[in-house]
Amino acid sequence: MVVVRRTSRDIRSESRLEVMHALLSAGEASRNELARVTGLSPATVATVVSDLLANGVVTEARLTAGRVGRPTTTLRLNGDRGRIVGVDVAETYVRAVVFDAALDELSSAEVAKDEHHGETDYVIDGIVDALDTALGRADATRDDVLGVGISLPGGMQRRSEVSVVVPNEAWHHVDRLRQRIGLPLVVDNPLKAIATAELWFGAGRRLASMVTVNLGTGVGAGIVLEGRILRGATNSAGEWGHSLLALDGRRCRCGRQGCVEAYVGAAGIQQTLAEIAPEHPLAAEPMQREFIGALAAALESPEPDPAVTETISRTARYLGSAIADLVAVVNPDMVTLTGWTAWALGGHLVPAVRERVVRESPGDSAADLALEVSTVRGNSVATGMATIALERFLGDVGLLTTRVPTAL
Length: 408
Description:
- The chain is α/β, with parallel strands linked by helices.
- Helix content is 41%, strand content 18%.
- It folds into three domains: 8-77, Winged helix-like DNA-binding domain superfamily/Winged helix DNA-binding domain (Arc Repressor Mutant, subunit A, Orthogonal Bundle); 81-189 and 380-396, ATPase, nucleotide binding domain (Nucleotidyltransferase, domain 5, 2-Layer Sandwich), CATH 3.30.420.40; 203-373, Nucleotidyltransferase, domain 5 (2-Layer Sandwich), CATH 3.30.420.40.
- It has helices at 8-26, 31-38, 42-54, 120-137, 174-181, 190-201, 261-264, 266-276, 288-300, 306-330, 340-360, 380-396, and strands at residues 29-30, 58-64, 72-77, 83-89, 93-100, 105-112, 145-151, 185-188, 210-215, 219-225, 228-229, 334-338, 370-373.
- A five-stranded mixed sheet has the order 6-5-4-7-8, with helices on both faces. The protein has a five-stranded mixed sheet with strand order 11-10-9-12-13, with helices on both faces.
- Helix 9 packs across helix 11.
- The two termini are 26 Å apart.
């Protein structure tokens, strides 16, 4: 086994991240407040702040007068340092979000995508269109951009199977994508993006181990263990949606039978409805996001739809059982649900899912488990990719040596 030794440079790098996390959470803080919140020594905070000030990542905010002694200077992240863009490439849309360097959202743009097409040029055209539109809405130019983070799903189909309808081919043409974008670029998968968003903006701020479950067309889990994102040997950790839920069960688009995704992905939920009520009008809805939206609307209707109610009940049972397997393996402090299906249906799913997880998890592993819809609002994939791009920028300027993204 290879033991990676942390150098003093790595320790300082981690300290810079801790200070940036604290400033992101507080908005602004003094050096003494940063030392108290992070647990770092005042001397370490002073050194870290000097590094961040010198690179324009942090700026002085204002002077505050204390009861005794000299006024204190507060600090904040320097949003004017530049612009960061996060891009979420999903099966049904491409969404680009522009942030300032303090990770405050400035603008966004979404391009609808035909979920039945995933050709490379089609995907890249959508990315470029969304990026340019979002930059225009932020009154930003490409010269303002410090980095772009793009999330690409896919990579799970077998070679012998019919290709899964996701932009897998774009992974094989990153050079072409880089050429079209013409900006500092990092590419990662959505599971690492949502885990990063939770680390910076959600439950990861206070918890060491957690799982963020992404629910949409695809299904997966961003896993954080002891404060670090689990990537795996080939950066494919978290493909929980393609773990087994039912032996010899439904056919999954990855080529296997019985995958979690085949039951709790958007298409799987629609199949459940079709099994319950084959003639139900929503069972024939061709577009997944419209189907999930209509399902949510039916649940809010004053007149209950028995087929829809039973669909949600079965989906909660499937999802709870699948999460119980995650709890058995990972034993996290918290599980959060994110993604457009979670935003639409989470409130209806969470109570029954939580009950199922507690009942089916081994021993007392879920007794104190928190399970809720993620508090990271907006597009968590785009937010996470922007954060990964910011981390890459910090690495490029020599401020970050650990946790620098290793993706393309």
